[in-house]
Amino acid sequence: MPSFVSGRHLAIFDPHCKFLPGLAAENPGKRIDFVANPVADNFPDQARNLRRMSQELSQKMAQDAF
């Protein structure tokens, strides 16, 4: 799924609303504050990608990543 990180937020897009729970065609994505919420527990695949850029998921990232 397409995603990007900016500061303390992870944005995940699911254009077909098939993989992320609770999505609808008019809002096909989620924005998650990964510092305040346990991304690794709820979205382990996305957390694995974040950890490739930064081992620490409890602080905002200095760079944006797509």
Tell me what the structure shows.
A hairpin with a 2-residue loop joins strand 1 and strand 2. This protein has a 3-stranded antiparallel beta sheet, with no helix packed on it. The mean pLDDT is 83. 21% of the residues lie in helices and 21% in strands. The termini are close together. It is an alpha+beta fold. The chain has 2 helices and 3 strands; from the N terminus they run βββαα. The chain has one domain.
Looking at this protein, list some descriptive labels.
alpha+beta; 66 residues; 21% helix; 3-stranded antiparallel beta sheet
SS content category: alpha+beta
The side-by-side strand order for the widest beta sheet comes to: 1-2-3
Shape verdict: globular
Total strands = 3
Main pleated-sheet profile: 3 strands, antiparallel
H/E element string? Answer: EEEHH
Residues in helix, %: 10-25%
Low-pLDDT runs of 5+ residues are none
* Estimated radius of gyration: 12 Å
Total discrete domains: 1
Distance between the termini: 11 Å
- Total helices: the number is 2
**Strand composition percent:** 15-25%
Mean pLDDT across residues: 83
Q: What is the structure about, briefly put?
A:
This protein is α+β, with helices and mostly antiparallel strands and 66 residues long.
Set down the secondary structure blueprint.
Elements: E1 3-6, E2 9-13, E3 29-33, H1 39-42, H2 44-53
Antiparallel strand pairs: 1-2, 2-3
